[in-house]
């Protein structure tokens, strides 16, 4: 979770607090006389009280009350509403922004501070406030200058791209790019219908009534402010203070009862006004034109328009109250779209799954963010079946529009299928070859209270087979966007070549990789039957989420190891996030506190750790030290796991013979047998049961069951455990929960033999909750396993996809300088020398290969170039020289481009 300072929290709270926004809303609809001077002093005091309480409630016991009161008192009693000043905006802009010709951009030396602010406060407000101040300076800017500057501003107000240094995005979810401004454009400007507060959404969740209340208020305020501005017959600087009718509160009371919360932008764009005079009417008309033309910066036009009104010395106090209330309401909604918390469950259910994100997702501005530079390329992730002719056509059109490339003209009126290859056509094709697609299975699955999600293996296999059929389909794809596609005799057009990667995304704590690995292996097993018109091509590469969010460091590392082993990952495959291989287990556990997981997962972790302790026992004395500790803990949990107490099978014939064998050999159960049973999980249980004891015949069955012979050997205890576990998981029987704490060896002895008096009298009387201890030695050995696995995976050619801002927002990291990329691939490789900071066990052989990506730049506000700037600033904070940091990042940038072109296949090939 991103750590922020008090002043940053205070600024964010001032512009997004729901209680203050609600109070201002009620004030506007009250019957108070807004010409009475004392009313503004009273309102300032009320805002001060609410804001002070809000900061302390949001971040309990984190800051001194005196400090909070001092900050809020200064801001709320400094002419709030009665002057044209708003707190923090000018100061933040001076600190974080810089003018670069026509561009307002964040200072590269303040990238981290800017990103922290962007999570609390919409940067468009900051820039809009600055531009509105520019409009009221002397001399007044020319009309054409205003249009040019506002329309030129770049996404996220990042520095302009260097055309000589293209970047490759290797891990970005297409719907995670959609920013809050695009969503609000649809809600406010296009009047998209709102959900009912009690409606059941597509993902089974209920819409949030508080969100609905904020949306209704935002739309009403927005329509109020636009309608109020339409009634103004002169510019704000010419309004007379004595005319009460010009106040917003008076207009609000007198407005027509038939008032509707929507606007006809075509009509507003044609309102009579002086086209050469900068005033409120001109700004309103330009704003309406931007909406009608769906310009990329129409959201910025709104902020400039409202800031211009607020800053006018003749604007009435109630109008300023309405504008601030609108900004606070919109920022409160925005906070519900920006990830700011721990864990993937929170991300999937609260932020990515928010129904606000389903309102409207236009492609074009998404494309602007991904392909900011002329030569930028990207691998884009989405669901397996989002890859359709229509969606790719929409995506391609947005990419072409963003690149200012037009469709080549056909040779004659009906010749759109016969476009020939020339310079214009080559440029057009090059634009469409700047990306490819990575489809993902979803592991996110809802389950009842106290129950674990169940995988539908039959359905997953259907999806895998359907995907192959879909990619081999010859129908469609003949639109003019694709130059006639397969009907064009000048090209060999093969759209399935856009589909280059496979992933399993979502909450990795819900469904494990073992449920998807057999399908992934089969999909890329090669030599599948294809149509006669297809040319030879390479297979898919894997780019799989693993080790991003976990209940225990061992769980995260084991999930990664399962991904590598069960999916047969190879040279060029990638692990998404893989934080469990980078964050120091001791530090993670300290921040986490108690670690809560199911007993069978805890046993899996102990067995897995025991295996690597035996592997490293000849190299590392620490491994020898933890082996007896682990063996004792493993024995303790034998009878805590349902599928080890008594085997359960759906097949009654199996049940009698194998259950008898289980009891007969139970005294032979060893950690090694449990580890071998864990390895068998790479086999598909659904395909095994489907065979009914027969030998695998089809390629699918052979790939899904690589250990079929062992699984059919009922004399092998590991096979019995494998079958019993899968049968048990299909039932609703819940294992006990384990709470793991960090303590010394003395406290760990309480779990040996007779229970301690504390256990007898405390919560351990509940057999469904068991306590266990991780000792410092074991946590230190976990760090050694990280180093060992990093070395082994690097030797396999596996790459780690880092997503710095996403990881800081979701994981237990406080800042970018804590990101494990500095451990995996440090700017100064001397820290990897034997015995140094990142090789204290002597197991590392050098840096591992990494990529830098954005993941979901609309949910964790960033851009790809911003990610590189964040890492540069973080490296400098660690004492790395600026030139060294830049050289390090340049090598990562070039490696990203190499990986894109390694996996890419040309979709258009001249014949």
From TrEMBL:
InterPro entries: Ado/ade_deaminase, Metal_Hydrolase. One of its GO terms (biological process) is adenosine catabolic process. GO terms for molecular function: adenosine deaminase activity. GO terms for cellular component: cytosol. It comes from the Bacteria. Coiled coil: none annotated. This is Adenosine deaminase. It comes from Pseudoalteromonas rubra.
